[in-house]
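Hi there. Long-time user, first ticket. I'm pasting a complex I've been working with (about 634 residues overall). I'd like to know whether the download I got is complete or cut off, because the file seemed smaller than I expected. Thanks.
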Amino acid sequence: MEGEAGGVAATGHPRGPQAAVPLVRVRHLSKGYRRGSQRVPVLTDVNLTIGSGDFVALMGPSGSGKTTLLNLIAGIDKPDGGELEVAGQDITRLGETELAAWRARTVGFVFQFYNLMPVLTALENVELPLLLTGLSHSQRRGRAALMLELVGLADRLDHTPNQLSGGQQQRVAIARALVTDPLLIIADEPTGDLDRASAAEILRLMDWLNVELGKTIAMVTHDPRAAEAAHHLIYLDKGQLTDTSPFDG
Amino acid sequence: MFFLKLALLNAFRARLRSALTLLGLVIALVAFGLLRTVVDAWNAGVEMASATRVVTRSAISLTFSLPLYYRDRIRAIEGVKRVAASNWFGGVWRDEKSFFAQFAVDAENFFPIYPEFVFKPAEFHDFVRDRQGCVVGRQLADLYGFKVGDTLPIRGTIYPGNWEFHIRAIYDGRDSSAITRQMYFHYDYLNEVLKLTSPARANRVGVFVMELADADRVADVSHQIDSQFRNSLAETLTESERAFQLGFLSMFATIVKVVSGVSYIVIAIILAVTTNTMAMTARERLREYATLKALGFGPGFVARLILAESTLLCAIGAAVALLLTRPVAAAFHRATTAMFARFEVSAPTLQMEVLWALAVGLIAALAPMARASRVRIVDGLRHVG
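Hi, the file is complete. Here it is re-exported in full:
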């Protein structure tokens, strides 16, 4: 991750190697919402680069705009202005259908509340994103089983989410995020709904994804322990990047 | 396959809600089938009508009678093969609830016009020979346990007094479409009694039934008959048997329309119930739909998933209703046997049940489909179901 010129710098606590190739490039990004006749700014002139293979944690107080920034990078929300390139693609110019196809190819999602389909087994949940590929049924099944094995759930393939603990459900969600081999993994408070032990397990798994599989990870978190797992920290306050943590006081 | 499995699993996720919706669907579709069958049963007489039969009645109203001598004048018209007098008797056997139709007819002319009524020759012969004799249809005999040789006491209402008839024959229907729920007796017996008790009402006939030589001449012969009696004291109206039956039914048209209307109201109610179920379902699952969209599935996939879920639910309801409609109709007929001679659920009625079920499935899904496919991913992900 690189700090940006122009008064908007994002510095943190680098733990890993500096990424050479930029995967995410954000320039003068802005986003706001309408409340009645008023526009409420959420992000203002944000500039940011996330390198390929980086593991970045976005931190900041509630309402600082970190989840909005993550949503924009993930292509599930549209900015009001600015540029946003991911893997060389300006995603602000994509239509809904193209954007959906782009997300299926490029982004893996890990949500705070796992967002698994409750009626499907762990294996079927992981298989789900592969329905958008041209893989055969057996290829999809094989790949989904492999992903579940990677996250340590080889013995839980036929369990539905309500038969799994929170930590196990989040591991299924990580397997689902990985199964299409995306360039970027977006994690929104991945440990927010877990106890300490399960959270530590998930963070170890994410670190492994980053270090061993080379996955680029952008994670929003409130949890300082989760943030320590990241290689770089980015602080947001009132919709702008800051060079110091607003929690430092 | 995966898609269908997901839709099916989703359809029965809230088991109690789905089961209640399904129950409502089945009840509504079976009720629809029963009500349509009631309408069909009401119109069954029209379906029995022959193309070569015409009926002559008073031009004023069916309740006005015609002179008996018209019979000979009608018989003389070219194209008329046979003519028979038929009089509605309207008596009560046992009680008003045990209703069946009784007609006074000149048997030797009447029954050859109705070849769908099949007699044993010996029984028919006994009937012709007995002035107080009567014949009853097989359905009527089975319903009330009438046997040949029984005496049938009937209290007259239009023709007051206590009347006694001897059952001399039981006739069968030529095929399953024939209604054999009537009793016929000799017009001469009625007329002779009236000559003694109420001479002013004697030699009068309710309708004349004719068989024509050529079905293509119905309009022409009808016109000739009515011309014969134009400007007389009792002008006539002659029409095909089918038109006559429809005219007769028109007296009950409002009831039939109400029954028919109620059958569609039942469908409208279940449409509202199913729409509510699907709306609740879709609202609860907004976050799941948003997740699917985030994973790369388009709004069309989400819409199809809701449509498949709704249609599957309704298709299952239709399948159960199809299995139940005929047995329920049979039970209904047993309970109301005096009312309908024929009460059979037709294939078109069953087809309409299926079509309406699928239409309900489709319409109920429209609003949830629109909402789920339009919802922004970020809003859906924030949604707490």
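A couple of notes from our side: Chain A touches chain B at residues 71, 74, 76-77, 96-97, 100-101, 103-105, 109, 111, 115, 117-120, 124, 127-129, 131-132, 137, 176 (CB under 8 Å). Residues 1-19 of chain A have pLDDT under 50 and may be disordered.
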